[in-house]
């Protein structure tokens, strides 16, 4: 008989990933999407936008006091970003592994930052750092109607539900 989602805790976990302006300018959107797709995660939200400063101020509220805060906002408004919501088992933790250390100098080869960046202030991509943080960030960047909530046939192919 078909099993239910209850047998697979965390399967509906979601995280916010964003291709930052340098990633867009360097034509890395497809490469970054490819890495999440091939891992087996499900894309449930996607948009390209010029991020409003107000949104970024909320997104980076915990960094307000950092010396690099204003240059971070300048960087993040220097061009469009691609915001995405990815869903799947342990997607928050796995995304952080896919993305690599905040400082590209410490990011392992094979990670996105480890493969495509050299400096902490131009590190190509964002991924939420906790399940709680992800929920907050997703609600900042997306309205719930913009997110896909249907169970696609991919579930049966990836998770054997
Ligand atoms: P994270 O993006 O890996 O979660 P955070 O510490 O939350 O790392 O920092 C958010 C972003 O702020 C980083 O991705 C990076 O773009 C920028 N940032 C963090 N630390 C520095 C720094 O020391 N200098 C310049 N930019 C920084």
UniProtKB/TrEMBL annotation:
Cofactor (UniProt): Mg(2+)
Main localisation: other
EC nos: 2.7.4.6
Protein's cellular compartments: Cell projection; Mitochondrion intermembrane space; Mitochondrion matrix
Lineage, opening ranks: Eukaryota, Metazoa, Chordata, Craniata, Vertebrata
Organism (species): Triplophysa rosa (Cave loach)
Sequence ranges assigned to domain Nucleoside diphosphate kinase-like in this UniProt record: 12-149
Protein's UniProt name: Nucleoside diphosphate kinase
Residues of the full protein shown: 36 to 196 of 196
Keyword field: ATP-binding, Cell projection, Kinase, Magnesium, Metal-binding, Nucleotide metabolism, Nucleotide-binding, Signal, Transferase
GO BP: any one term: GTP biosynthetic process
Residues where ATP binds: 20, 68, 96, 102, 113, 123
Protein family membership: Belongs to the NDK family.
Flavoprotein keyword on record: no
Reactions the enzyme catalyzes: a ribonucleoside 5'-diphosphate + ATP = a ribonucleoside 5'-triphosphate + ADP; a 2'-deoxyribonucleoside 5'-diphosphate + ATP = a 2'-deoxyribonucleoside 5'-triphosphate + ADP
Record-level Gene Ontology MF annotations: ATP binding; metal ion binding; nucleoside diphosphate kinase activity
GO cellular component: cell projection; mitochondrial intermembrane space; mitochondrial matrix
List of catalytic residues: 126 (pros-phosphohistidine intermediate)
Residue stretches spanning the membrane: none
Topology term for the membrane: Peripheral membrane protein
